[in-house]
């Protein structure tokens, strides 16, 4: 069979070669070009998508040590994606495409998903950018979703190589204008297509009624009010058209400093305490302006801080927490652990896996984010204080921390509808600059910081530790992270609601022109068929029971808690007036002045934190109440499904958490069948659980990284790493090393 073969070679330990692979000599490729061309897969274009350049006789390579296997086909570049079109006989079978994305195929890379491009010149790998004087014999593309593609161009015509390489470099790396994003081309071409109502998937928070509904849901309407003072963005383009402020706050104060220095409501808890956020006032050198700002903030503070009825704790995230630079640096190191070119590289880095993981500091940053959220929850829950989060623009770390607090405290945010509404409220409408933070326009690498991905990783820690508490799965979080780079959805491609409203208006002054309708990512039917969508819903989710009168509220479940917090005991400091000179601290924070210490002493903060956390740990968990993560050393783990899914060597065939889930679902199915016989009726929820169990059971090659691992080759490398080892020991030593491999896959 033509289309698969070995071309060239490389060093490293030789791996067993599958017996079914045919070996094609390089000179045979052009001789059989006509035959293969007839078998090429048709390029499917989305509405508004245009073909820019292409090259034939390209080998998509799978690198395995000393051999280089590949699929012969065409490499194309459009204004939406890079796509490889191979021999249709090499297509995956039905089992392996059950989780197929309808927008992005397994051999497709959206232009926004390209991270780095490398060329191989005389066996040397070099970064490609700008105009090239010499063109590579192999193209390597590293993607932001951590896929790695190898394309051999050795047998492609020289002119086609120049066109495709130059085209890919230009369209993925050159700075772009906002209006040139494919988002708008697609919206213009597909505006007559029917789409579901976005409000059926999430509360969009684009109307005053949406905010009033959220206030009523959280019982925040007693102390806070929704305002329309920014309607038409006449006060500030950074803020949404509608938002919520404390009821006593005069609306005329909002425009004073273009929305800066105004406490904006995020969420209210059952005790009546609220989480607020505020952006800092611009730094000024003039003493007169500084005095005006001080007087303004003093008035604001007196409005929201009225002891003993209303007490506010300020939390300055700009100076007392993470920096965006720390997040950027840590993730840059962390992602390199998973951008693996071949099997040899995997096993070479495996020997120093834990030291490399620790040196990246990514897991430590996750731990710090979760710990900060717990500290704020302790103030809201145990001390009955309002908490005011401070940040320069209140659009990065404020979004992260406030969202984590709500996921932990509000069970509504642990449902899919509630979580999607939370992201809309705190991130999309809250003004997180996705366009800049994801660097979609390729205008500044310094602005590219994965703050939202950090949030999803923190949520994954909670999902991993408390599966029954969440209606959605880790697969849901994984595909949500992938959707950051699919430019047919406006959700993650704009900086603010103002930018969206400005750019979706009429394209011309003609009477027949219509405002653009931009898709929301929350309509998962755009990307997945109904059967695949069942993998986004957690069949083990424990719904809140409808209790009869007289029943105790809350259902408790047994939970294993193995380790204590790694916090050292310290002498409890004498209680002191927490709010003494609080006004001056708040003003200094907002005016950008240096603060030498936290408002609370560190000893008192640790004591309060530990007492609160230990108290929660001593009680049986309530999956519909407060839910805190374990943040001790080994409890913070690598999100294996997202980061390891494209590395065959990291898979545990027939093992991992998915194997346990499969058995649990089979047991649930059996229980449901017995219930049906007794009750003689069916429930829609049971049908969905049965569908999910069917997907797991019918999979021919179930692995620990299901469902993504099915789309990848299965490594023929032996389970045990041999690189760096002189010899294998006895059978007992062999078993120990096998255990080490299994532990790595479950990190």
From TrEMBL:
Listed GO CC annotations: membrane; sarcomere; sarcoplasmic reticulum
Assigned keywords, A-Z: Coiled coil, Cytoplasm, Sarcoplasmic reticulum
Cellular localization per UniProt: Cytoplasm, Myofibril, Sarcomere; Sarcoplasmic reticulum
Coiled-coil annotated spans: 661-691
Main location: cytoplasm
Alphabetical list of PROSITE patterns matching this protein: PPASE_MYOTUBULARIN
Complexes and interactors: Heterodimer with lipid phosphatase MTM1. Heterodimer with lipid phosphatase MTMR2.
Function per UniProt: Acts as an adapter for the myotubularin-related phosphatases. Regulates phosphatase MTM1 protein stability and possibly its intracellular location. By stabilizing MTM1 protein levels, required for skeletal muscle maintenance but not for myogenesis.
Listed name of the protein: Myotubularin-related protein 12
Organism: Lipotes vexillifer (Yangtze river dolphin)
Gene name as annotated: MTMR12
């Amino acid at each position: 069979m033509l289309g698969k073969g070995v071309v060239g070679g490389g060093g490293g330990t030789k791996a067993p070669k599958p017996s079914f692979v045919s070996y094609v000599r390089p000179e045979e490729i052009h001789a059989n070009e006509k035959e293969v061309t007839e078998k090429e897969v048709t390029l499917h274009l989305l509405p508004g998508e245009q073909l820019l350049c292409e090259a034939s006789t390209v080998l998509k390579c799978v690198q395995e040590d000393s051999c280089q296997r590949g699929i012969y086909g065409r490499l194309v570049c459009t204004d939406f994606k890079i796509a490889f079109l191979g021999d249709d006989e090499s297509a995956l079978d039905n089992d392996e495409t059950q989780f197929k994305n309808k927008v992005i195929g397994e051999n497709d890379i959206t232009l926004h998903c390209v991270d780095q491009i490398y060329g191989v010149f005389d066996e040397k790998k070099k970064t490609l950018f700008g105009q090239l004087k010499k063109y590579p014999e192999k193209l390597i593309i590293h993607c932001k979703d951590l896929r790695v593609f190898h394309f051999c161009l050795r047998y492609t015509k020289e002119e086609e190589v120049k066109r495709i390489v130059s085209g890919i470099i230009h369209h993925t790396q050159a700075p772009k204008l906002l209006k040139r994003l494919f988002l708008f081309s697609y919206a213009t071409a597909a505006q007559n297509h029917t789409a579901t109502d976005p409000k059926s998937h999430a509360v969009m928070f684009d109307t005053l009624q949406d905010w009033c509904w959220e206030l009523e849901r959280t019982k925040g309407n007693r102390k806070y009010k929704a305002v329309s003072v920014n309607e038409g963005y006449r006060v500030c383009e950074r803020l949404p058209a509608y938002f919520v402020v404390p009821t006593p706050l005069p609306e005329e104060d909002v425009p004073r400093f273009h929305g800066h220095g105004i406490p904006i409501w995020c969420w209210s808890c059952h005790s009546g305490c609220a989480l607020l956020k505020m952006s800092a006032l611009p730094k000024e050198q003039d003493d007169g302006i500084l005095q005006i700002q001080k007087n303004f903030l003093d008035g604001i503070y007196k409005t929201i801080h009225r002891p003993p009825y209303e007490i506010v704790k300020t939390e300055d995230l700009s100076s007392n927490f993470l920096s965006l630079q720390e997040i950027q640096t840590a993730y840059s190191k962390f992602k390199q652990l998973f951008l693996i070119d071949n099997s040899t590289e995997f096993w070479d880095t495996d020997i120093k896996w834990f030291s490399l993981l620790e040196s990246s500091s990514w897991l430590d940053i996750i731990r710090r984010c979760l710990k900060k959220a717990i500290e704020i929850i302790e103030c809201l829950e145990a001390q009955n204080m309002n908490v005011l989060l401070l940040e320069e623009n209140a659009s990065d770390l404020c979004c992260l921390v406030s969202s984590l607090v709500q996921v932990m405290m509000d069970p509504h945010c642990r449902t899919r509808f509630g979580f999607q509404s939370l992201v809309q409220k705190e991130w999309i409408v809250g003004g997180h600059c996705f366009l800049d933070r994801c660097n979609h326009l390729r205008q500044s690498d310094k602005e590219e910081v994965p703050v939202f991905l950090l949030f999803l990783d923190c949520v994954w820690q909670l999902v991993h530790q408390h599966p029954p508490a969440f209606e959605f799965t880790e697969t849901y979080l994984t595909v949500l992270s992938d959707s950051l780079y699919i430019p047919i959805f406006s959700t993650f491609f704009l900086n603010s609601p103002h930018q969206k409203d400005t750019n979706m208006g009429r394209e011309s002054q003609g009477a027949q022109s219509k405002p653009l309708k931009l898709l929301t990512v929350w309509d998962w039917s755009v990307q997945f068929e109904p059967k695949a969508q069942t993998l986004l819903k957690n069949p083990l989710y424990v719904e809140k029971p409808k209790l009869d009168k007289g029943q105790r509220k809350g259902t408790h479940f047994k939970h294993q808690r193995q380790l204590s917090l790694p916090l050292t005991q310290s002498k409890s400091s004498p209680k002191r007036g927490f709010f003494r000179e609080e006004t001056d601290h708040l003003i200094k924070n907002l005016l950008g002045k240096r603060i030498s210490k936290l408002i609370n002493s560190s000893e008192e903060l640790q004591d309060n934190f530990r007492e609160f956390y230990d108290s929660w740990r001593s009680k049986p968990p309530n999956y519909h109440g407060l839910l805190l993560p374990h943040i001790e050393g080994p409890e913070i783990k690598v999100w294996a499904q997202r980061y390891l899914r494209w590395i065959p060597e990291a898979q545990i065939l027939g093992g991992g958490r998915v194997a346990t889930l499969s058995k649990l679902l089979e047991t649930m199915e059996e229980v449901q069948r017995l219930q049906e016989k007794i009750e003689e009726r069916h429930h829609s929820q049971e049908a969905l659980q049965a569908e999910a169990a069917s997907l797991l059971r019918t999979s021919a090659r179930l692995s620990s990284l299901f469902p993504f691992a099915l789309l990848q080759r299965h490594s023929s490398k032996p389970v045990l790493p041999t690189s760096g080892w002189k010899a294998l020991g006895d059978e007992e030593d062999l078993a120990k090393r096998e255990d080490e491999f299994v532990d790595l896959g479950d990190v």
